[in-house]
Design goal:
The structure is a homodimer of 160-residue chains. In chain A, 54% of the residues lie in helices and 5% in strands. Chain A has 160 residues and is mostly helical. In chain A, helix 1 crosses helix 6 (133-157) and helix 2 (28-34) packs across helix 3. The longest helix of chain A is centred in the last third of the chain and has 25 residues, at 133-157.
Chain lengths: 160, 160
């Protein structure tokens, strides 16, 4: 099982948007350029983030994308869901209802295979819910340091 | 992201094998028939379980598959890994090393996006490691009840 690379791209793109000055926005092509990613795919993922209410599209001169709510109110789980969808990874097909023993048992009781996988998914979800885009952006800022931050602000002001 | 249906099939197949009498074995086609699954796909998944050391193939009359170790020593995580592989779901492509700010920062420090996703995967793994095939088989036995258990043993003795 492989998570879409769009999840990684989107987390980093949101962290970039979190670093913009008040009222700033970046186009899909600028967000793609910042990490040297294919613009068309980046645009597709930004549309998914927009549909999920994570980013907001601003029209006109200086338009583009900005975060739709504060970076500390967007979790990595929100981003993952926007890109990967909201259905559980484990789909129970109730195969226990088939075959020679299918007439026995109480079908209303949930399958314990499905229950175990969904419990594991809840643990995974809770872990990602505890990490915000603000936390990611802070980590990136620390990584880049003061010189990197200055270069980033210059890049934004140069029109990206 | 969708987990292969082979994970569900394999968990249930292992639970069936856990219910066999001492020394018993079931063919791939019998294991497929028990849940009305396509025999060729079931056989493929059983080969993966065999490569992972979860089931053991027995040749000759009365041959087939049996569990390679006690059911309480096989976790749902073991089964999931056998079918889905052992690489993490999240693949970090280090896109933070690209673009206008790539010259800044300490590349040796792990990316905090990747760190967060891998931490979530560890939570998921720990959750599945805590559930054994013995637990699943016990749940199935409880679901079927005494009449279902008798039907199962009869089905096995009839040559499946």
């Amino acid at each position: 099982m492989k998570l879409s690379e769009g999840v990684e791209w989107s987390c980093h793109a949101c962290a970039v948007l979190a670093g913009l000055p008040q009222g700033g926005a970046l186009s899909a092509s600028a967000l793609a350029a910042f990490h040297e990613l294919p613009p068309a795919y980046m645009a597709k993922h930004l549309q998914a983030l927009s549909r999920a209410g994570i980013v907001h599209s601003v029209r006109g001169v200086g338009g583009g994308y900005r975060l739709a709510r504060p970076a500390n109110e967007i979790s990595l789980w929100d981003v993952r869901q926007a890109i990967e969808g909201t259905t559980p990874d484990f789909r129970c097909r109730e195969i226990r209802r088939n075959g020679p023993c299918s007439e026995f048992g109480a079908p209303s009781r949930p399958c314990n295979v499905a229950a175990a996988f969904w419990a594991a998914e809840r643990s995974y979800q809770q872990s990602l819910e505890s990490v915000s885009i603000a936390h990611i952006a802070l980590g990136v800022a620390r990584l880049y340091g003061a010189k990197g931050a200055a270069r980033f602000q210059a890049w934004v002001q140069e029109g990206s």
